[in-house]
Amino acid sequence: MHIGRDRLRELLDAVLAQDNSTLGDMAAEAFSSPFHFSRQFARGTGESPVALRRRVLLERAAWQLSRGERVTEVAFEAGYDSVEGFSRAYSRAYGHPPSGTSTERAARWLPAANGVHFHPPMSLWVESEPKGRPDMDPTAIMLHHDVDDTRELLERAAGLTDERYRQVRAPGFSVLEWDGVEESIAGVLANLIRTREVWLAAIEGADTPAATADDPAALRARFEEVTPRWLAAVREIDGRGGWNDTLIDALCEPPESFVLGSVIAHVLTYSAHRRLLVRAWLRAESPDDAMEIGHGDPIMWLRQRG
Q1: Which of 10, 74, 195, 222 is buried most deeply by CB count within 10 Å?
Q2: What CA–CA distance (Å, rounded) separates 212 from 225?
Q3: What single DSSP character describes residue 166?
């Protein structure tokens, strides 16, 4: 998921680094003077470095408290010298003491003109102004066609012998270089599922999922586990008009920022590419069944759904 240098992310990293408690520390990490660092940061975020750090660490503290962590430990992790000082700052910010913390993410976010918020476990979320969308549009069709088409391909792959399933059909081929080679039906289907798992983990703020078995049964189980969560995440983004929100993703190395709408488009684009590739290989594998296997056309899929 490497795109290139992200200066905003570098400045935010300097502000939020665990050991950078002063403006001088932040500026030094960004190889800048405190004056120029503050000026550049404020221009990019509309908030001073110290104020943003204090606010985001309070949001992180709210998340930790919502998970049942002790106030004393949370207070010191947030950089406060005493529990009393933390409780006063928390109460001023949220209007209630730490013991009244909500489990809802939106309730843990403090007002911010720039929309930069803490996103667990150690990422940031940049919220944009809500944008409405029509109730029916191609995105909904593409999302659900993607799910149904993937399920059909997994079912068809389960009918192949392991030898045919893993047969090298395009030596050295890769869809995206960072995903590795995808020379077989097994390789393409594995990355089709894996891509969704990794991006969903970034959106949810979870750890990078471990790679597991890639036989058809295992992939089908992974697909059925991730799909409801994937669709729920997209519905949640759509429901609050969050297509323009920016996720600063800590799963990348180094972390980078991504517009959520582009993330969904990325997943759907390369999922479609992989699905069409697998379908073409399946048609070549069984010429007599080519008509039944079809081309994966969303027009025909929608007609069949009535």
Answers
A1: 74
A2: 13
A3: T
**Whats the size of the chain, residue-wise?**
306
Q: How far apart are CA 142 and CA 268, in angstroms?
A: 7
Neighbours of 35 (CB within 10 A): 10
Contact 79/20 with Cβ under 8 angstroms?
A: no
β-bridge partners, 25: none
Q: What is the dihedral of CA 200, 203, 209, 211, to 10 degrees?
A: 40
CB 116 within 8 A of CB 12: yes
Q: Cis omega (within 30 of 0) on the bond before 121?
A: yes
- Give the number of other Cβ atoms within 10 Å of residue 261's Cβ: 18
pTM for the model: 0.58
Return the H-helix or E-strand segment holding 108. Answer: helix 105-108
Amino acid identity at 80: Y
Give residue-wise pLDDT tens across range 45-94: 778 888 888 888 898 899 888 888 899 999 998 889 899 999 999 988 88
Largest Cα span, the chain: 76
The predicted structure's pLDDT at residue 41? 81
Whether the pLDDT of residue 131 is over 90: the answer is no
Question: Does the structure show a pLDDT above 60 at 20?
Answer: yes
* Nearest Cα residue to 185 out of 208, 213, 226, 215: 215
Q: What angle do CA 205, 208, 214 make, to 5 degrees?
A: 135
SS3 state at 157: helix
Tokens of 221: 């189980």
